[in-house]
């Protein structure tokens, strides 16, 4: 009888040790996941807002406010990206198809253009909202930075035009 109790006790001991090891592994897994998420959070729906020359002329605070406003409209951007991926797959198939269907490709390109215009419209609305929120002084500073950026662009363009052309 003592041998049977020893075997049962030994089995119970191994079961408890196994349970403790499993609990520690699970705890490590969840804590590690939590730490990794804190260090590397998921990408935002809208990473950075780019509005051409306007973006560079905005102050860091205005860029941040613009990014947050765009993120608030993240579902629109997500839907547009989903549609763009689907349309790109269809466009590739239509271009590769035999016989060639010009009307189908034209329709897909038209949808691409409409999405691009929609993104431009959203950007326009966001920049107008941001300008509304700026003080007169901030708007004047923004205008000056735009003016400086335009002058730099014009100078670079003129320098490229004046540069000697390589001989073929």
Number of helices: 6
Mean pLDDT: 82
Estimated share of beta-strand residues: under 5%
**From N to C, what is the helix and strand string?**
HHHHHH
Helix coverage percent: over 70%
Low-confidence stretches: 44-48
* Structural class assignment: mainly alpha
Q: What overall geometry do the principal axes of the alpha carbons give? A: extended
Largest sheet: none
Instruction: Write down how many β-strands occur, each being a DSSP E stretch of 2 or more residues.
Output: 0
Question: Describe it for me?
Answer:
This protein has 168 residues and is mostly helical. Helices cover 82% and strands 0% of the residues. α3 crosses α5. It starts with a helix and ends in a 6-residue tail after the last helix. About 3% of the residues have low confidence.
A few lines on this structure:
The protein has 168 residues and is an all-alpha fold.
Task: List the keywords.
single chain, 168 residues, mainly alpha, extended
In terms of topology, how is this protein built?
Layout: H1 2-39, H2 53-57, H3 60-72, H4 74-96, H5 102-133, H6 136-162
